[in-house]
Write a structure and sequence with these properties.
- The chain is of the alpha/beta class and about 270 residues long.
- The chain is about 45% helix and about 15% strand.
- It has helices at about 20-25, 45-50, 75-95, 105-110, 115-130, 155-165, 175-180, 185-190, 215-225, 250-270; strands at about 5-10, 30-35, 55-60, 95-100, 135-140, 170-175, 195-200, 230-235.
- It has an 8-stranded parallel β-barrel, surrounded by 6 helices.
- The longest helix is centred in the last third of the chain and has 22 residues, at about 250-270.
- The protein is globular.
């Protein structure tokens, strides 16, 4: 197995002050983070410094839940404005992958999901904007219980074809792949050099080894495509969602993170 940096999504820790969050992740000996942050509350300079002081890289950024595909002009405009602001924020942090995804309907009830054509137009606009700051975007397929259009790696590749922007990449999440992909290993291979971020949670959204996902085959596929990005851990509690500490069991989250990190490190050492 190729040696890769291991990071963790920060949203799974709930609403913790950034400095305390950075301390916790540093103490757990991770290499970096996928950052979820309220851009109105903390300056990018402050966030960059507190993570850098602890030797933590900011690999990627988790977005808030906005609707790039909406048929409502105002809703779509607000979503594009949000992403442009997030891109500006990210450019101050370095060169993190700014993640995009469809509107998650289960968070706020049923809404107009819009269309894949509008989604592509919105993503094209923000991709061109990100290109000015030398940033890449990564579109993440979710699952049928959350959204409407982009559920698989094949869907994501189709969307990238519509967007036609060199800096638009794909993010794959092992948990969502378990629900939607016929063959997650082939999904990884299919994405090839367009894969920018690989997120990890077992089939039940817990740590590695507590579900039925074959992570050995996933990692072999990552090796086969020469994936050199980070491994981002994203276990979560039932009904947890970004931006909220509701339903958070911090001890349980730490357990899943330690278990996953130890499995990954053990596999690496066994192959050296």
């Amino acid at each position: 197995m190729m040696r890769r940096k291991i990071g963790v999504c920060t949203w799974i820790f709930g609403n913790i002050e950034p400095v305390n969050l950075a301390d916790m992740i540093h103490e757990m000996r991770f290499d970096g983070v996928e950052l979820y942050i309220d851009t109105d509350c903390f300056s990018p300079q402050y966030i960059k410094q507190i993570f850098a002081d602890r030797g933590l890289e900011i690999f990627s950024i988790t977005p808030s839940n906005v609707n790039l595909a909406s048929s409502s002009t105002n809703s779509r405009k607000n979503a594009i404005t949000y992403y442009k602001k997030l891109i500006d924020y990210g450019s101050e942090l370095g060169e993190p992958i700014v993640i995009c995804h469809e509107y998650i309907q289960s968070q706020l009830g049923a809404v107009d999901s819009g269309s894949i054509e509008v989604l592509a137009e919105s993503c094209q606009e923000i991709a061109l904007y990100a290109l000015q700051g030398n940033l890449k975007l990564g579109f993440e397929p979710l699952n049928r219980y959350l959204c409407s259009f982009i559920l698989t790696s094949t869907d994501a590749q189709y969307l990238l074809g519509l967007i036609n922007a060199a800096n638009m990449t794909i993010v794959l999440d092992a948990f969502h792949m378990n629900l939607e992909e016929d063959d997650p290993v082939q999904a990884i291979r299919r994405c090839g050099d367009k894969l920018s971020i690989y997120q990890i949670a077992d089939s039940n959204r817990k740590g590695i080894g507590l579900g039925h996902t074959n992570f050995t085959s996933h990692l072999d596929a990552l090796d086969a495509i020469n994936y050199n990005g980070p491994l981002i851990l994203e276990p979560a509690g039932l009904r947890q969602r970004p931006g909220s500490s509701e339903n958070l069991n911090l001890d349980e989250i730490k357990f899943h993170l330690y278990k996953s990190r130890n499995w990954l490190l053990g596999r690496t050492q066994a192959l050296v």
